[in-house]
TrEMBL record:
<feature type="transmembrane region" description="Helical">
    <location>
        <begin position="310"/>
        <end position="330"/>
    </location>
</feature>
<feature type="domain" description="Acyltransferase 3">
    <location>
        <begin position="16"/>
        <end position="355"/>
    </location>
</feature>
<feature type="transmembrane region" description="Helical">
    <location>
        <begin position="183"/>
        <end position="200"/>
    </location>
</feature>
<dbReference type="InterPro" id="IPR002656">
    <property type="entry name" value="Acyl_transf_3_dom"/>
</dbReference>
<keyword id="KW-1133">Transmembrane helix</keyword>
<feature type="transmembrane region" description="Helical">
    <location>
        <begin position="241"/>
        <end position="261"/>
    </location>
</feature>
<feature type="transmembrane region" description="Helical">
    <location>
        <begin position="20"/>
        <end position="38"/>
    </location>
</feature>
<feature type="transmembrane region" description="Helical">
    <location>
        <begin position="58"/>
        <end position="77"/>
    </location>
</feature>
<feature type="transmembrane region" description="Helical">
    <location>
        <begin position="336"/>
        <end position="360"/>
    </location>
</feature>
<dbReference type="InterPro" id="IPR050879">
    <property type="entry name" value="Acyltransferase_3"/>
</dbReference>
<protein>
    <submittedName>
        <fullName>Acyltransferase</fullName>
    </submittedName>
</protein>
<feature type="transmembrane region" description="Helical">
    <location>
        <begin position="156"/>
        <end position="176"/>
    </location>
</feature>
<keyword id="KW-0808">Transferase</keyword>
<keyword id="KW-0812">Transmembrane</keyword>
<feature type="transmembrane region" description="Helical">
    <location>
        <begin position="98"/>
        <end position="119"/>
    </location>
</feature>
<keyword id="KW-0472">Membrane</keyword>
<feature type="transmembrane region" description="Helical">
    <location>
        <begin position="215"/>
        <end position="234"/>
    </location>
</feature>
Length: 394
């Protein structure tokens, strides 16, 4: 493993590869939901043959989104620790994060109300009380059982992301106090805190579903992404090492899926599965990220223009695909088998996501960059890296 800084010409392909990984994550999640929302009874517990288990495990695309967020957003803090530079501007970070996720999210939530409010209790549609809609505007839907997984169900993950965004500057400042050691210690503590939380929750029965849909349950995924950012900084891997990491990462992801599927087949709620959750898959994704971002040449599959384009649109894809699936099913025009639903929903979702990117996301990001840059000057070394990060779910 060489320790020289990556050559400048390789930077753009590596950035494109990250978009390629976003595309993989987004398409996996769409595949999972196309399976889920075409079931006669919309429940992830309804699994029959092998194909059901395969479609169900595409849910791991969500884990990849969380790992990506940890990797990308921790990068500026890693850079500051490595170079001895000043801490990234928390003000600039907050403005860019808000511009990246809020406008498109608010538009999608408002559209979900318009599309679905008339179809309560149709398959897959669960609506909150109208008086609680304000919780969605402030990412508060995860903190009430009667709003959790309602309206636009995947939005619960964005509430987790938003909580992580609030926690990250504190973690970053903790890391910088210890410089090179601190930058490793912060994500390790974050990861271990999540494992401890899941251990504590695993031994208690009758808990609200809220406890499994808040940040502490998912800190291990963000933590391994943050550790990958530490390992990747300033390094270029020999091709054979990169391919070995890539292969090991894929093996871990597949192994995690098989572990979860086996437990479901046996009807087991294995305590180890409740404690470690999908940490093996998260670790696998972190290894893939490490391989891709330290390679001399990123894998061509991830940097192909159509794949990169899907990655660019991934946030809009994530925001819109479930409300569109539910609306089409309520209208009786959604094929009630997975591949048929995908054939219908993917083109429509891409079209809506492209409009979201063009008319909402790009203008909002441009505005947030302008505002964040006022008076920041060279004080914020993390601008470029942070701008690469989509909302972890998108």
């Amino acid at each position: 493993m060489a320790h020289a800084a990556p050559p400048a010409p390789a930077a753009a392909p590596r950035q494109h590869a990250l978009d390629g990984l976003r595309a993989v994550a987004a398409l996996s999640v769409v595949g999972y939901h196309a399976w889920l929302y075409t079931l006669p009874t919309v429940s992830s517990a309804e699994r029959g043959g092998t194909s059901d288990y395969v479609w169900h495990e595409l849910r791991l695309g969500l884990v990849l989104f969380f790992v990506l967020s940890g990797f990308l957003l921790y990068g500026p803090w890693v850079r500051s620790a490595a170079t001895g530079g000043r801490a990234p501007s928390v003000r600039g970070y907050a403005i860019r994060r808000a511009g990246r996720i809020l406008p498109a999210y608010w538009v999608a939530i408002a559209a979900s109300v318009l599309l679905l409010w008339w179809y309560d209790r149709t398959p897959g549609v669960r609506l909150p009380d109208g008086g609680n809609l304000w919780l969605f505007a402030v990412f508060g839907q995860n903190f009430r059982a009667d709003t959790l997984l309602t309206l636009n169900p995947p939005s619960w993950t964005l509430a987790v992301e938003a909580t992580f965004y609030l926690a990250l500057p504190l973690l970053g400042l903790l890391a910088l106090r210890g410089r090179r050691a601190g930058v490793v210690l912060a994500p390790v503590l974050f990861l271990l805190a999540g494992v401890a939380y899941n251990y504590a929750m695993s031994s208690r029965g009758g808990l609200s579903p809220i406890v499994s849909k808040v940040l502490p349950a998912y800190t291990p995924y963000f933590g391994v992404g943050m550790l990958a950012a530490v390992l990747a900084y300033g390094r270029t891997l020999a091709p054979r090492v990169g391919w070995a990491l890539l292969g090991a990462g894929v093996v871990l992801v597949v192994g995690d899926a098989l572990w979860a599927a086996d437990a479901a087949t046996r009807g087991s709620h294995d305590q180890a599965l409740r404690i470690w959750r999908d940490l093996p898959a998260a670790t696998g994704f972190a290894l893939v990220l490490l391989a891709v971002t330290t390679a001399v040449r990123a894998p061509r599959l991830l940097t192909a223009r159509p794949v990169v384009r899907v990655g660019e649109l991934s946030y809009g894809i994530y925001l819109w695909h479930v409300p569109l699936l539910l609306f089409l099913r309520a209208q009786g025009v959604l094929p009630l088998f997975t591949t048929g639903a995908l054939a219908v929903i993917l083109p429509l979702t891409f079209l809506v996501a492209a409009a979201s990117w063009r008319f909402v996301e790009q203008p909002a990001q441009a505005w947030s960059r302008r505002v964040a840059s006022r008076g920041a000057g060279a004080r914020d070394p993390g601008t470029a890296e942070a701008a690469l990060a989509g909302a972890g779910a998108g």
